[in-house]
Each structure stands twice: as structure tokens, then as C-alpha cells.
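hey can u check if this looks right to u? its 737 residues, i copy pasted from the old doc so theres a chance i mangled smth
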Amino acid sequence: MNKSRLPELFVLVFIALLLTFNTALTQPIPPEEDLLLNILHQTGLQDDQLGFSPKGYWTRYPDPNDIPFLNLAFNDLMADPLVLYDFVSEMAVAADQYLHPDDLANNNLSLLKAVYYTGVRQSTAQMRAYSASLWAEPEPGQPLVAAIREIYNAQGRTWRYNAMGQASDFPLNEEEILRQVDQLDLKVRELVAKTVLHLLHAHQWVETARRNVDPADMLAVWRIRRLGETQFDGLEYYPELEDCANSLDINSIYYAGSKLLQSGWELADTLSALIEQGRIDPFRQNLNISTPIGRIVIADAYDNVHQYSDAILVVDLGGNDEWYGAVGATASLDLPVSLAIDLSGHDRYLNEDEFLPSQGAAILGAGVLIDCKGNDTYSAKRLAQGASMLGYGVLADYDGDDQYNLWTSGQGASYFGIGVALDGAGDDRYRIHGDGQGYGGVGGVGALINRTGWDEYYAEPIVSDSVFRPDYHSENSYLNYSYAQGCGIGRRGDITDGHSWAGGMGILIDLYGNDRYTSANWSMGCGYWYGMGFLYDGEGDDVYNASAWSSGAGAHFAIGVHIDDAGDDEINLWDESAYGLAFGHDYSIALHFDRSGDDLYRVMGDGIGFAINMSQAFFIDLSGRDTYVTRKGRNYGWNNFDKYNPPPPGAFPHLFSDQVSLFMDLDGYDVYQIEDELADRHSDPRFGDDRVVLTPDSEQRQALSNQRYYGIGIDTRGDGNKIEAFRKKLAPANANR
């Protein structure tokens, strides 16, 4: 066949297929009418060639069966990349449903379910979100005093002191506690008593979780704070961390955390209703009592200052408050559970101790912070704002224009556990150095979920004295490793000590609003070393600025996905070393999907459907009048089909794998431009509207020793809704409210 005629014939066949498609959009798309499958079939690709299912005999391939802490979903998603949209969509739909104001107001399990679908279930399949099995029967009369007495009894501590057959004159625990408890409204006592009993049960479950863990290992792990910075290339090995991860009963910690979360939400919701109805006076409720498992504080609605190193429960009823130190966080190994609740006010949360987890964070335990409303400011250094290491950490802020500031490891981040940051509404600002904003470190699941508002996500891109995380992938290493905004990063031990740990799952979901994302390298739906990163934006005219390995990218056995379902968006990978927008390297799956909108894509490096070294990259834009601006030229379905072909020793698995580079723009009159060094733009001679380019072409393919390379670049006007893999199939139960 004449090589010059191949793209023309491809388009003719494709148009003929389009004319036969008339299936209703709400119905499943039969395989024979699926646009994506037909495009793949026209190039000789079959469905079972998508994805990777490695075998034990694949020399030099790090067998997933030998990589500890692998996420439950990894192997199946790696083998079937066409389910990625549905997989991420379920988390987004769950967040939309359970963070909806109506659901929060009428379903006391809403918060529990939001964290389950975006956190717990992504870490363990042994739990389901029926409830946290809360059970408490406070004694009548003095329920809170009785609940505190139960803590003493459970911990084997003395409630009434005595000597020589007589009660001691002091200390008088019961009398002192009664004196304080009597300051509370009876209804408040009853509610807090139940929560105290729930916290006792949570404390007992964390003790159960630790039953096989060496205390010396726990103490060593407590002091680790630069875990993210030292693991991606195996720079330091922590044997005590691996031992703890293997001996800790993490599901018992998740159960404890679930009890904190559900009990905390029920308490916050009920107290807020009582105050709104005028049934309790929030300015006359105060309590501060120390117990054997932690301090219990109830604070009035005035402007308060909170600073405790031993609090298991703090409830603030209103006011513009200042919170310092460990808030809703495990302040020490002796305080393994902590719950903090703030009902209203413009609050300030500050922790300047980088060795103290804070603001909904935990190490070897469970920590929860719930802030119901107000324009709040959160500032911390490490492991904060919905974060954990071998634990369960949740920050839930329901409403208000909030600001979140952090160095590293937070804003939805975890190592060997779950860390979830939820924000229901408001125009919010997130700033971080790196390792956060939906970050799954080794063995962890980290999720940042923001339902609505015009939000800004910022991971410091430029290396400086204050933020020094230089990445050699940028010229002169002037850009930072971001590892942020939906990023899963593992421990690559193959280049150092041989201890390889799978990366976790990092998730950033923003459902509504015109949002802005800024980062440098390794961000916005990125995976590395058996890690998975997912960035999902539902609606709004969004702006994304990043550099290398971003916007649906992966390297070294990883998965990276960036989905934008609606809006006129701008995506700018601005550095000349940048590669992304569906870029995969070394057995990775990369997906960038845009459903609709007139979008601008600008990549100064390589990308936009670009796979190398046996990976699969999918760039799919279903509709809109889009503009593409590139510079270097390895774009639009390009792949390195002539590299390691025939495979040398070490590339043996290439014989059994398929490299796929796919670029698809299926509707709209689109513009393709080249930008020169003066930033002048000209029409791109390599690709354009209504064109097809195959890499390799048929003549090149015939000359290859290994022909399992498929590069497809296609721009046409079809109906993108005729792709089953990207058809919207899920909706919140409250979609018609």
C-alpha cells in the first residue's frame, strides 16, 4: 500500500463508521459502535492488548507479586485501563452525594461514607460503610460522670482513693468532676457522655491494633518526618517502619477512626441544632477535665485559645478561636486517638512543631478535626490537615473561604494508612511545598476532596532556600519535585538497597467552580513506582500550570490520570523540559481525558499522547474548539518504536507487551500551532484539524523486529459520547434534588 494514502483511507473508514452510529446516548454503546474501539481496531489493536499483566518470567521486570504494600486496585487497573474513568468517577460521585448540604443535614453517615469511598475502601476491602457501630448507654442522672468513671475502670485506674479502710480526704476525683460537669446543660452532658464512651471504644481498638507492634519500633517511627523526601529513589531505608507496617492491625485503626468521625459528626450536628433552636446557651458551657486516656474540653462560644498536648476531645461551641499544636491529632504514642470539633467562627489553626502531627492527623492511631463553618486558616509544617503515617487522619471543613498552608505530607496524604481532607463549600486556597494535596505515599491513600467553590491549589514550583526540592529533570534543577495534586509515589529500591515498596493512591477531586492548579514536576494525576495518582475536576473553567511528569503521567510501573469533565480550560506545561498530558514511561498507564469545552493545551516539551519504553498513553478530548501549542515535536501519538527494537537483554518483557500512544480529538474545529523561542505561534505542519498520523506507519512497521508498537493521532468530528469507556454511567442518589 502507498504510505501516503494510509491516513486518507483511515479517515474514510472512520467516517463510514460514524454514519452508522445512532445509539441513544443514555444507553450502553455496543462494541461494534464504539468509536474508541473502532479506531484501535483500524490500527490492528485488539481490546486485550490494552494494559499490562506482567508474568513472573519477565526478566528484570519488578514482579508486583514481590513488591510489598501494593494497592488493592493496582494490578486490575493496570491490566484494564479502559475502566479508569469509571473507577475515578465513582469516588467523585460519592463525594458529590455525601458532601451535598442536604445529605450532610439528613444523613448522619454522610461524612463516614465520603471518607470510606475516597479513603478506607481504597486501602482495605474488609470494611463496608454501613456504620461505625456506635454504641453507648450512659447512666441516667450523671451520664458524663459515669462515662468518665468507665474510662478509669477500663484503664485499671483508681476512681475513689482510700487508705486504712477509709475514703481519702483528697484527691476527690468524683467531687471535682461533678463540680465541673454541673456547669453544663443536662442535654450537653448526655451528648458528650455518648461521645466519651465512643472515644473510649476507639482507644481500645487502637490498643488492639498495636498488640503485635514492638514499642521500640513505634518510638523510632514516631520521629520520622522526611519520609516522602527520602523514599522515591530509596535514599534511606527504615526497617522499623516496614516492621510496624507488617505487624500493625491497620483495620482496627480504621475502625477506631470511623468511630471518631461518625461520633464527632453526630455530636457537632446535634449541638449546632440545639444552639440554633435556642435550647442551650453556648456562652454558658465550659468543661476541662483530665482523664486517664486524655483531656476532655468543652468551650463556650466566646473567642477562645486552645493549646493542649493531651486532649482526646475538644468541642468549641463558637467564636473566632485560636488553636495551637496538636488539634484532632495524636500528640504522642500515649494519646492514640483525638477528636476536635469547632462549630462556628473564623478560626486560626497553627502548629509550628514539625514533629507534632496536627489538624486531623495521626501516627499509629486516629485523629479527626471537624470545623463546621467560618473562614478559617490552617498552618502547619509536616503531617497535618488530613494526614497519617500508619494511621487514620481526617480534616473535615464544611463551609467557608478557607486557607490551608503546609510544608509537606498533608492536605490529604498518607503513608501506610489513610489521610483525607474534605472541604464542602467556599473559595479555598491550598499551599504546600510538596507531598500532599491528594498524595499516596508508600502503602498509603491520600485524598483531597473539595465539593464547590473557586479554589486554588498551589505546590511551590520554583526551588529556593525556603523550598528546596530540586528535580534533575528540569534544566539546572531549578524546579521542585511537587508530588502533589493527585499523586502516588513508591519507594524505588531497585537502584539502591533492594527494598522496593509500592506507592499508594493519591486523589484530588474538585467538583464545581473555576479552579486554578499550580505545581512543578510530578503532579496533577501522576504515578511513580507502583503508585497511582488521580486528579478529577468536574465543572468550571480551570487553569492548570505545571511542568514535567504532570497532567496524566506515570513512570516505572505506575498509573497517572487527569480527568476534566466540563469547562473551557487552560493547561500549560510551561518548561522546556516538560512532558505530560498523557505521558507514560517504563510500563506505565497515562490518561488525560477532557469531555467538553473550548480548551487550550500548551506543552513546551513532549507529550499529548506520548509513550516511551513500553508504556500506554491515552489523550482523549471529546468535544470543543481546542487549541494545541507545542514546541519540540514529540506529540500527538508519537512513541519510540525504534528504541530497544529488537529487545536487548533487560528488555525481554517487550516481546510480550504492547506500546500504545493515542491522541484523539473527536469534535470541534481545532487549531494546532508551533511556538518558537520568541513565543510567536505558527501553524503546525506535522498535525492539524481533521488529520490522522500513525507512528510507526505501515512501511516502518514492516521493518521492525518487534512490531508491537502503535501510535495514533487523529482529529475528526465525531460523537465522543459513543465511547463506552467514557460514558457517564454513575450519578449521585440526590442528583434530582
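The chain has a mean pLDDT of 94.
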